[in-house]
Amino acid sequence: MENPPQPVALEQLQAALSEARWDRLAQRLSRSRFRRRFRLRGAERSYVQREGLARVTHQAQVFVARRLAPARPPRDGKQTPYRGHPVFVAQHATGTCCRKCLERWHGIAAGKPLTEQEQLYVVAVLARWLAAEMGTQMGTQLSSLWQGEQRGLFPSPEETHEAPSP
Ligand SMILES: [Zn+2]
Three-state SS for 69? Predict the structure, then answer.
């Protein structure tokens, strides 16, 4: 198995998807009865709150790279569960669940591997939808959501590995 992708910075996401492009997409999605049924609630919502959008975005990078980026992803059309992870919900809500939906909603042709730039765009769409569902703009007031609630309150696992003072 190949190495997981390097985590993207918030600035890369913002560069990959302008607010104007997001607004147009959100408009189109809102006209689909199927897409707009998907909302972030319950366990998936708590997960984003707790873990932070940075971590969830990195998980989105891994999902996109493994389950969407190949020219012919395994079980394409059925590879994205309806629940169990906030990114799965975001994928159905944004038409990034499979290569057929990616072509229909985002004009990215099926049958060929996604480029780095296309993967980044998809991840930016997912992160932007999650931010919107959490009631947060990408550009403003995102720092607390990006880091996660618990990370702000408690030391991160890396920090707890510090050697105790003698
Ligand atoms: Zn689909």
Answer: coil
Q: What separation in Å is there between the alpha carbon of 46 and the centre of ligand 1?
A: 25
Cα 73 from chain centre:
18
Indicate the DSSP class of residue 114. P
Query: What predicted TM-score, i.e. pTM, was given to this entire model?
Result: 0.86
- Residue-wise pLDDT for 6-38, tens only, equals 999 888 998 999 989 999 999 999 999 999 999
How many angstroms is it from 107 CA to the middle of ligand 1?
13
Would 158 be classed as within a structural domain? no
Residue 161 in any domain: the answer is: no
Structural domain count, the chain: 1
Residue 99 Cα, ligand 1 centroid: separation in angstroms?
7
